[in-house]
Amino acid sequence: MVVPQQRDIPELTSDADAKERVVIVGVELDGGNDHDVDASLDELTSLVASAGGQVVGRVVQRRARPDPATFIGKGKVAEVLEAVRGTEADTVIFDEELAPAQLRNLEETMSSKVIDRTILILDIFAQRATSTEGKKQVELAQLTYGLPRLRGWGQALTRIGGASGGRGTGGGAGRAPIGTRGPGETQLEVDRRRIERRITKLKRELKEQGKRRARSRQHREERVPSVSLVGYTNAGKSTLLNYLTKAGVLVEDRLFSTLDPTARRLRLPNNTPIVMSDTVGFIRKLPHGLVEAFQSTLEQVASADLLLHIVDASHPEPDVDIAAVDEVLAEIGATEVPRLLALNKLDAVSDAERERLLQRFPEAIGISALNGEGVETLLEQIAERLERRMVEVDALIPYTEGHLLNKLHDAGRVVSSSHEEGGVRVHVKARPTDLYALRPYLLERTSH
């Protein structure tokens, strides 16, 4: 069924006529329901807006399983084609990842460009990446996605590109069509071997950058606990980091406004210093290739002492967002990290809805990162959660190990100390990671 798109889409360019007109297509397979499909297409609409396009219609189909040739079958293809002509759309975007043959068959039938949700998300990531590492991560994901689609797809491959060229690089050429930005576009016109060499090179470079990041993170975490902000994209993580640390991270009301990780130091109400870090937001159906490409960036989440899970309280279905975040955390091996839930954007909900949410999530802290409501309570809860992981121990640190003593003092671990003949006797509140360095000098464990 063809449904005209009524939702207002945020304007991303001053020239409304330059917007790419898009028809989106969703399929409800056996076991699904109308609500799930509609919610996913609503999100796809937001993704299109983030990429600079405008959804002018949507087509929904119910079927037992995807059609191997076109995903939706010949009859529905004709209906999509009718929607494209009726709305004068430039592009058709499917809400699922399509096989190479399906993309090829659909584009041969349609009078417009055909892409899928994965291409669209990769396109947005290419537009947002600013750091060298971020651009390489996006390029790797795009090339990995495009490689099996080389055979028989011809010029359609020019839709795949990377963050180093095309629309994301500025210049006076104007906004490129969705999915046509590229590291790019010339690389994907060459043969498979050259692309494979480029993928190998990118993986090697990202591995080296990941090692440097890990060393830097290890040095930082030896001194202070780390708290990682996680959550659905546009939940308000960057806004909270800016409020707490004046980090100056870009904040916009659109999906994936920031990709590059940011880490800032701050002190909790009990005077404990921590490092709080923000990274890419999560989303439903986040392409696996992107998770793999951003692995070195996401490792800081898995190694954190505490995850601060930010949830958009104004979203009509916060459970769905939470489930999507849980899925990605499982994929990167972070399910065992302690987590604190924060319901953000309480300033955007009614008093009745606020009460309902806090009853529904009794362990969550209600906050507004925009005006600071509840943030002090949140910081107190962070301090309490980190305190639970502490172990109180006594150690006799030799005078020759003054650097270790300095680290403990810098991190606020030392409760009391006294000078003795063999060194400095200290009573410290230690994290599990501290115990590795203290192990040779431990005297006794006094409490947990």
How would you describe this protein?
This protein has 14 helices and 15 strands. Helix content is 39%, strand content 21%. By secondary structure, the chain is of the alpha/beta class. Helix 1 runs parallel beside helix 4 (117-128), helix 4 (117-128) packs antiparallel against helix 5 and helix 5 (132-146) packs across helix 6. The strands form three sheets. Strands 7-8-6-9-10-11 form a six-stranded mixed β-sheet, with helices on both faces. It has a five-stranded mixed β-sheet with strand order 1-3-2-4-5, with helices on both faces. The protein is elongated, with a radius of gyration of 25 Å. The longest helix has 32 residues, at 192-223. It has helices at residues 34-50, 74-87, 100-109, 117-128, 132-146, 192-223, 237-245, 288-293, 295-302, 318-331, 351-360, 375-388, 402-410, 434-438, and strands spanning 2-4, 20-29, 53-63, 91-94, 113-116, 226-231, 262-267, 273-278, 306-312, 339-344, 365-366, 391-397, 414-420, 423-430, 442-447. Residues 1-16 and 152-174 have low confidence and may be disordered. Helix 10 links the parallel strand 9 and strand 10 (339-344).
